[in-house]
Amino acid sequence: MSALRCGFALRVASALVGVTCALWSFVPAKVAYANVSLKITIRDEGIAPLAFSAKQGELVQIDVVNQGTRTHNLVIPAFYIFTQNLNPGEDVQASFRPDKTGRFPYYSDTGGKPEPGISGTMTVNP
């Protein structure tokens, strides 16, 4: 009787494993995106890097550092990124997922107008 129960238990376990494997194969795969993590440094005379790229939908994480002697900020209007004004030596983090492709400007606009020479371009690829 014990061998019979053991054989039945093995068949049930085997069937469950088969069902589990079959169900697992129907689970849709998640889309995996690489992350972009970068530091944008703003000085009174410019911004670095002057350009960077990302893929549509991937997470972009930016550490913005003001190494100038005046107040600056970072604006990427196409993706609604508007950091607070940063005093000299301050930093802030921003993150987003670009939802469209193309070339998009980023800049410092302390005072409401883009500051001359403190701009770059973000390229978002499909």
Describe the protein's architecture and organization.
The chain is α/β, with parallel strands linked by helices. The protein has one domain (36-125): Immunoglobulin-like (Sandwich). It has 1 helix and 9 strands. The strands form 3 sheets. Strands 2-1-4-7 form a 4-stranded mixed β-sheet, with no helix packed on it. A 3-stranded mixed β-sheet has the order 3-9-8, with no helix packed on it. A two-stranded antiparallel ribbon has the order 5-6. The longest helix has 23 residues, at 2-24. It is globular.
Short synopsis of the structure:
With 126 residues, this protein is an alpha/beta fold. Helix content is 18%, strand content 37%. The chain has one domain (36-125): Immunoglobulin-like, CATH 2.60.40.420.
- Report how far the terminal alpha carbons are from each other: 64 Å
Question: What's the CATH class label?
Answer: Mainly Beta
Mean pLDDT: 83
CATH architecture: Sandwich
- Roughly what percent helix? 10-25%
Low-confidence stretches: 12-32
The secondary structure category is alpha/beta
In DSSP terms (H or I, runs of 4 or more residues), the helix count works out at 1
Domains (count):
1
Cα-based radius of gyration, to the nearest Å: 26 Å
Form type: globular
Could you give the order of strands across the largest sheet? Answer: 2-1-4-7
Q: What fraction of residues sit in β-strands?
A: 35-45%
Tell me the series of helices and strands, N- to C-terminal. HEEEEEEEEE
Quantity of strands, as a count = 9
Q: How many strands, which pairing sense, and closed or not: the largest β-sheet?
A: 4 strands, mixed
Q: Can you tell me the CATH topology?
A: Immunoglobulin-like
Quaternary structure classification = single chain
| Name given to the CATH homologous superfamily | Cupredoxins -  blue copper proteins
